[in-house]
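Minutes, project check-in

Agenda point 3 was the complex the collaborators sent over. CS summarized: two entities, 754 residues total, and the question is how they sit relative to each other. Sequences were read into the notes so everyone works from the same version.
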Amino acid sequence: MNISTSRAEERLVHVPLGERAYDILIGPDMISHAGGEITARLKGRRAAIVTDEHVAPLYLESLMDSLQTDGIEAVSLTLPAGEKTKSLEHLATVCDLALSARIERNDAIIALGGGVIGDLAGFAAGIVRRGVRFVQIPTSLLAQVDSSVGGKTGINTRHGKNLLGVFHQPDLVISDTSALNSLSKREFRAGYAEVAKYGLIDRPDFFEWLEANWQDVFAGGAARTEAIAVSCQAKAEVVVADERENGRRALLNLGHTFGHALEAATQYDSSRLVHGEGVAIGMALAHRFSARLNLASPDDAQRVERHLSAVGLPTKISQIPGELPPTDVLLDAIAQDKKVKSGKLTFILTHGIGQSFIADDVPVSEVKSFLEETRSE
Amino acid sequence: MNISTSRAEERLVHVPLGERAYDILIGPDMISHAGGEITARLKGRRAAIVTDEHVAPLYLESLMDSLQTDGIEAVSLTLPAGEKTKSLEHLATVCDLALSARIERNDAIIALGGGVIGDLAGFAAGIVRRGVRFVQIPTSLLAQVDSSVGGKTGINTRHGKNLLGVFHQPDLVISDTSALNSLSKREFRAGYAEVAKYGLIDRPDFFEWLEANWQDVFAGGAARTEAIAVSCQAKAEVVVADERENGRRALLNLGHTFGHALEAATQYDSSRLVHGEGVAIGMALAHRFSARLNLASPDDAQRVERHLSAVGLPTKISQIPGELPPTDVLLDAIAQDKKVKSGKLTFILTHGIGQSFIADDVPVSEVKSFLEETRSE
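CS then shared the predicted structure for the full assembly.
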């Protein structure tokens, strides 16, 4: 069966990573026929599903039914929702589940949920028996366009986020676009920031398309599927060129150096700022900063802000509710971000819409005076 | 500086794994100049050393001095000796040490000890920041010829041995042959079983050389260095051909299917049986079993037994002190060994000395009657 032609609204993005190549299936109501997609690609007939208490009531039964119909024996584990679940303790629980269920190398751990569940379950899949099969069923827009492509997995420690993990590519990603209907508008917008990012990195036409069609993407249907497929394709191309993150992959951090510092400055309090909002502000700042350094036209920076504002995303530091720490503390957070190498500040800057590049020698003094100026705007 | 020519008794084995290629340095008193070897190859100038309470009093100070002399800032962690240290709890402690010491991707975790320390520290090196540099300084013969080559790392869980781990190749292995002088004769012999294994797999000339020179290998000096270098070379060739253990690498399990079952049957009680002794008995059984199946000449099986007995290794199940469980329980242990795929029994069998091969359809009934017969001999 050729999936891409048999169901009109479905899209297939192939990620050509040699012996780690895999497919991303994107379309409506995919969860209800996940079993068939898995048996068509994986040899094992056992699975351990990891999900969270928000997602389980919505989709777990449908997934279990589909697996059973196709002869896959599955167990499931429902964890608390939220970033704190990315802990060593929960990792141990997932591994124990998989080993108790006798998951072997050809069997799968299935992540049903957002980025937190994907990062945790993917890490477990990377270490159980030194690597078992991994199927991602991302249920947030952020996870569908970002964390489900690229093979990064991880948990947090007392030292910071994602400090323990492995690179472990999924064997299949099933992105059910209907599942996004249950997201709050704020969650959807936060994921959309990453969609816009792919346009800003190196796809000016896609950014223009988003400016014209973003309302359809939010509404669902073919435009949503298209936006997710282009995003996955864009991320896949970068990952294929640089699987282990030594070079070009850093472009994916557009907006993230400022964004992470702002997330840290709000103590990761999601009532004040979620990741995608930090990235939206970070992308706006990266474009303004590039204009200030005479690398890009101020018109492009304004165009970015206009679009992000139109969809309802923040673009200025001052839009973050509550007090923020002094600029020196923000600078420290930027310097401690793991993208810093040997003390130099690395930023993703831009020559304009869709023309971003890696700058690895940005003077701290420039960043400081820019932050001083921009935070009060 | 070309190491292999500047110091007469040193040998260098290169493991050509593409961008994961690394060197194994073998020779006397290597620990005391480890710092220079590390700075010659690694960019980072920080290190976290993991060792155990048996090894620390002997070599930790010498290693720390050498690192300091060469400008490497090092912290160390001394763990309890023994298999129980391969736990999730100790893994967490090692990762915490590395993160507290601000080990970054180019810095190293150094394993100073035997296989337990290497497996644990290597696992940590594979997951801290999704992979930092890893230097092995194996201090047992078993670790020098087996676990330090191949990139397998891992810990044990309540379900069994090595069930969690990653493939993470070292960046450098420093095998100090003088360190083996502190091993008990029993420990040395157990490591020697793996040396002999490489001859039996596919190097008949090496096996013949060992028959003539084993006493010099035990005594130390050039023959010991030679035996370790040939063993590393042999294992490296198999690993390079099959890094992720999908095919040919299974040859390294010669003697291990029977051996693991016997280890399990003695509840891993090292006063009764250590791993190398299990492997020695397992190799003798694999040769006898092959002769019984008319695959090899009984003369070869006798020759294997004669050599292993000469060095003081056991070759018969009846040499294991204490009661053993019934044959059915041994068979169950063989069937649960992770080399079993979909219920078929996979064994490494042989057509003679140095002519081993993978047999993946060995009838359970044949194994059972062979075990019944052989256990009383």
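Noted in discussion: The domain at 3-181 of chain B is CATH 3.40.50.1970 (Rossmann fold).
Follow-up: revisit at the next meeting once the mutant set is ready.
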